[in-house]
Write a structure and sequence with these properties.
single chain, 636 residues, alpha/beta, Immunoglobulin-like, TIM Barrel, 3 domains, eight-stranded parallel barrel, six-stranded antiparallel beta sheet, 23% helix
């Protein structure tokens, strides 16, 4: 006789789920001879009461009474090749230290129902960060945690971004990681959690944030375990008006799987030479293995993972790592998996943002099925490459022509009908990682990134991104002129951590740059044309290092003119075409932020007059004063 089948039906969820006076257990192991559910609730005894029942699809399931929240458990799998414990692929939380037991968890959490709504897609401004290195006040004892990020939520809200994008937070097995080698997809990374003995001061601090927003406090027991701490971070973000996007890796998993992982979950014999993993192909990627997208159970595992985070964690969307690997290395089934994934999620949560990373850029990734893969947006690299090229060449000690023409051509990649369907920015975790490319400020002046040359060119680079089409993305530290590369290796590269101390000690250059970013983000909010659906390049001149472009909303107006200049001297009486006559206000001038408020600011005294002097295919034009290394914005 096996474990009871009470509360078991065709809709019983995978993994372990508390119900009635116990829990249901369900796991996929079609090649296993027996599967037991063992844990604190049955003294880990393998007997008839803990033996699960196999169905025709190869799922082992059963109901065991007496299971409670925070009980530890494992599946004990008997296969043709071996027998032993296996972690639940759907485990909500894992026991420290890793590898260890799974933990039964109730999904209950004291969410604050404050009416938060995920932003409309054109309103996203993304801030990408790595939890372990973003803010690390407890080094060398411990790296950054979910609750350390939570302590910075008011700062991020004040910055004006509308979403934080967390680099992968699923459990990984190495001491430190970018997060792209995870093997336990439903459990948050244990190193990102604060352990119980250290929790009380954290709860006090996050409760101060809740008090400031007149929200009910957390109890210490509410935040025990990395699962609830991640939920608290998301809850606090929503209270402060921020969306949360998770970076998920559905192309491959792990590398260092370990005997208790879901690699060879049903413990097949290896003698025949015909062994295949339940979840993976034999194709490698980034030190791991590509998922087997041809199996319905594997597709369901990944799609259920996304639904799980949308539902149980209330996230607002996903950034999908290397969808091009899903398509190419996962052929012939990878593309249809993407269609199944996006179709399911659009039906389940239509306002969640689904961003694909696909190289080379492929517009079909954002077209709806059956023509396309169905993602809402995709990362693009054209504008990033163009920005970094003109900034790099501008740093050379001459006034050589810059490829402003290519910069203009890169403002809007071909094949995209919606401006919110691509994500762009001059920095990201891949590009400025240790040993790769430099931060924008250091590209602007390699030997002295804090010089006027480095600072002013960094303003121009971020200014282009925040006024151009697409969803802009900032990488952590970009907003306060961080000029170092970054690393996830806290042991050997602590010198690459973000320079928060500079802000705390009143570093004038950092504070001025932070003000510049904040006010430019606010400008994007105040002037809908900067989030609009139209772009026209007005004027481009490589020798003069000038680019001007026009943003507006079709049928509504909200016209905005953006002028970019990367020469090291001011220009006067520089005539640019305008789409209408009369006064145009200079609503933004980056030169103001040089030693705020710049007492020697160069500009147009807040206003220019467009007169009937046809130019650049407009009937009107205005004579401008353009500061050196600057970005100007004009509106009616």
């Amino acid at each position: 006789m096996s474990a009871s089948l009470n509360h078991i039906d065709v809709g019983t969820p995978m993994g372990v789920n508390l119900v009635a006076d116990g829990a249901t257990f369900r796991v996929w192991a079609p090649g296993a001879r027996a599967v037991y559910a063992v844990g604190d609730f049955n003294d880990r005894q393998r007997n008839e009461a803990s033996l699960l029942t196999r169905d025709v699809q190869g799922h082992w399931r059963g109901f065991i009474p007496g299971v409670h929240d925070r009980h530890r458990y494992m599946f004990y799998v008997v296969g043709d090749g071996s027998e032993g414990p296996k972690r639940d692929p759907y485990a909500r939380e894992l026991q420290t230290p890793f590898p260890s037991d799974c933990i039964v968890r109730t999904p209950d959490f004291p969410w604050h129902e404050n009416g938060y709504i995920t932003p409309q897609f054109p309103d996203f401004i993304i801030y990408q960060l790595h939890v372990g290195t973003f803010f690390t006040p407890n080094l060398p004892h411990k790296g950054g945690t979910f609750l350390d990020v939570a302590r910075k939520v008011p700062y991020l809200a004040e910055l004006g971004v509308t979403a934080i994008q967390l680099m992968p937070i699923q459990e990984f097995q190495t001491k430190f990681s970018l997060g792209y080698n995870g093997t336990d997809y439903f459990s948050p990374e244990m190193d990102f959690g604060v352990e119980d003995p250290d929790l009380t001061p954290y709860v006090a601090e996050v409760n101060q944030l809740l008090d400031a927003r007149q929200q009910s406090r957390y109890r210490v027991e509410d935040l025990r375990g990395e699962m609830n701490q991640l939920k608290a971070l998301i809850d606090l973000c929503h209270i402060h008006g921020l969306a949360v996007i998770l970076d998920v890796v559905y192309n491959h998993a792990g590398g260092d799987f370990g005997d208790e992982s879901f690699y060879f979950f049903d413990r097949q014999s290896t003698e025949s030479g015909n062994v295949s993993s339940l979840y993976f192909t034999d194709r490698g990627h980034a030190g791991g293995l590509v998922f087997d997208f041809g199996k319905p159970e594997v597709r369901d595992f990944l799609i259920q993972n996304a639904r799980f985070f949308l539902d149980e964690y209330r996230v607002d969307g996903f950034r999908y790592d290397q969808v091009s690997v899903i398509d190419h290395d996962g052929a012939p089934h990878g593309w249809s998996f993407c269609q199944n994934l996006t179709t399911t999620l659009h039906h389940y949560r239509p306002n969640a943002l689904n961003v694909a990373e696909y190289w080379n850029v492929n517009p079909f990734i954002v077209k709806r099925p059956p023509e396309g893969a169905g993602f809402d947006a995709t990362l693009v690299d054209g504008l990033r490459i163009a920005i970094r090229d003109v900034i790099s060449n501008a740093s050379c000690p001459d006034e050589r022509p810059l490829n402003m023409t290519n910069l203009a051509d890169s403002l809007c990649p071909e094949g995209f009908s919606e401006f919110w369907s691509f994500v762009q920015g001059p920095e990201n975790h891949d590009i400025v990682y240790e040993g790769r490319e430099q931060r924008i400020a250091r590209i602007g002046q390699p030997d002295d990134p804090r010089s006027w040359f480095g600072r002013s060119r960094a303003r121009v680079a971020s200014g282009i991104s925040l006024t151009a089409p697409g969803i802009p993305m900032l990488f952590m530290g970009q907003e306060f002129l961080e000029d170092k590369q970054w690393s996830d290796d806290l042991e050997f590269h602590q010198q690459l951590l973000l320079h928060w101390a500079g802000l705390e000690m009143g570093d004038r250059q950092m504070i001025d740059h932070l003000r510049f970013i904040r006010e430019l983000v606010q400008l994007r909010w105040r002037y809908p044309g900067l989030r609009g659906d139209k772009l026209r390049v007005v004027h481009v001149h490589d020798q003069n290092r000038v680019l001007a472009f026009h943003r507006w909303i079709e049928g509504q107006g909200h016209d905005v003119i953006v002028v970019v200049h990367l020469a090291t001297f001011n220009r006067t009486e520089y005539r640019i075409g305008f789409p209408g006559s009369g006064g145009w206000r200079e609503i933004f001038n980056s030169d103001v932020y040089e030693n705020w408020v710049n007492p020697n600011v160069t500009g147009n005294e807040g206003m220019v007059q467009a007169v009937p002097h046809p130019l650049h295919d407009f009937g009107y034009s205005a004579s401008l004063v353009i500061p050196a290394n600057s970005i100007l914005v004009f509106a009616r």
